[in-house]
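Pipeline run #58 for the internal structure catalog. This entry was flagged by the ingest filter as a single-chain record with no existing model, so it goes straight to prediction. Upstream metadata was stripped on purpose; only the residue string is passed forward. Reviewer on rotation: M.T. Logging verbosity set to normal.
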Amino acid sequence: MGRVVGIDLGTTNSCIAVLEGGKPMIVPNAEGERVTRSIVALTDDGEYLVGKPAANQAVLNPRNTIFSAKRLMGRRYAEVPDVIRSVPYVVKAGPEDAARIELAGELIAPEEIGAKIIRKLVEDASSYLDDAITDAVITCPAYFNDAQRQATMNAGQIAGLNVLRILNEPTSAALAYGIDARQNERVLVFDLGGGTLDVSLLDVVEPICEVCATSGDTHLGGDDFDKCIVDWLAMEFLDKYGIDLRNESQALQRLTEAAEKAKCELSSVTSAKIELPFITSINGEGIHLEKIISREKFEVLSAGLLQRCVEPVLTTLKDARCQASKIDEVLLVGGGSRMPSIRKLVNDITLGKEPNMAISPEEVVALGAAVQAGIISGEFDQMVLLDVTPFSLGIETKGGKFHRMIARNTAIPTRATQLFTTGDHFQRGVDVVVLQGESKRAHNNRTLGRFGLEGIRNKVAGEAEIEVDFDIDEDGILSVTARDLGTGNKRQITIAGTAYLDQQEVKDKASQAQKLAAEKQQKQLANVERQQAEYVLSTVENQLEFIGQAVPNELRSKCEKAMSALRTALGDGAPPKKLSKLKVSLELAAEPLQQIES
């Protein structure tokens, strides 16, 4: 069995961690960085780039460079209009209105992009640790719905991993801090990532880490703060030149990168300069964009977003029946939490409580996931995790009402069973519509799935009894069973909404990903073999030239013959095996040259 890791699959950045000596540690990527940009690009020659290499070519290849794919995972096309407008690549409606990304003329699921990021993390970590990685705990926002959780699970499986658990990000952060807890603490976790806001309140009483309540906003993240700057720059430019830069993919990519850079700078300085030379042209003349944005201006632009951060905190405290004065610890998680306005907001709500910043906001979630991976695998037994479901779950009943089966903030895993009766005389079947949300009206909540139960016995209204069972596992994924008590007929589904891939598609794409990985590995081995062959060829050529006339004719002829064969093979693009064989032949032929040199 290989190593077990924790993975934070983020909107902006992703991270991987492992337990070493009972402590979680971040594993750097191949570029030596502790976090990897969540960006995937497809080049003109069909090669996929992930992370920094993908980011470096984004401006020149905006249509085929995908970022913020996490905001599309498990989502329907109709649910993501803001994301569609803010990215330079193309998002279209796929089967059953599922959000799909157009890449090189094909529509692919967002979780396939997530899988490529995960595979990059795993391959780099495996190389660094010199050990295979087979199992992982992968995190997701606490406020992710069932479809988004399943999509996260699918991304890990497509990447070739056995996904042990889908873990809520705020809970993961608390685990990372909780392993060093020395006393009973009530912890508020404020997690503002690139695409989502999560707020959770936890009781950490060693060895138990229990989630009391959670709330959030899956349409609010650092990307939205970037967009405030993008829109400001674009509108200023539109007023001056009559051109909306957001309609040009390359210009939009440059605006997005500049906005993110300025936002990050404004966390440590009071103003940032934005310079974008030749952002577009008018009548063949290049136009430059130069602006200075102050922290005060940025906070004015993002005031509406800042206000939206308040409600999830208040809701969490209310649901947990906790006063702000009773909070012992505040954890700020996610890159967005570095913004001074965010820190001040949380500080005000918690009555001046200073946040614990001992661990990097970008790394803490992956570290906690590694702890959970260690708990599951038996490497780490100091903590017990008790999480909750973030939404109420139920079914639609007669009159379009929502009947709640499981209330939000119920500890998971959990199960609920209730009896229902038919609403019409001699009804032979029922449709079970599974919903998620807090509204009393069914149509205001999110439909997770639906299925029919047929063959009910002919009875008058109210006599036929249908037993409905809701079961949520440790990953927060829901299974629903309906059974007619009169006939014993039963239907069971694991909720698999139309916004993500079914299990057969996941298996197919996992096989395809493994095949591509094998091809990539073979290509890398071929390149290594080629480089070694070229090195040996060059070395022998230099030896013959250096020794000159002192080389016996027979030995020279033997070396030149072996060199010619290897040179021809290199020119013909021969396979690695043949190159290796010819390289060894040349090395053997040239072996006597070393004695002559000495």
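catalog note: The CA atoms of residues 426 and 458 lie 4 Å apart.
catalog note: The chain has four domains: 3-220+309-388, 222-305, 393-500, 504-597.
status: ready for reviewer M.T.
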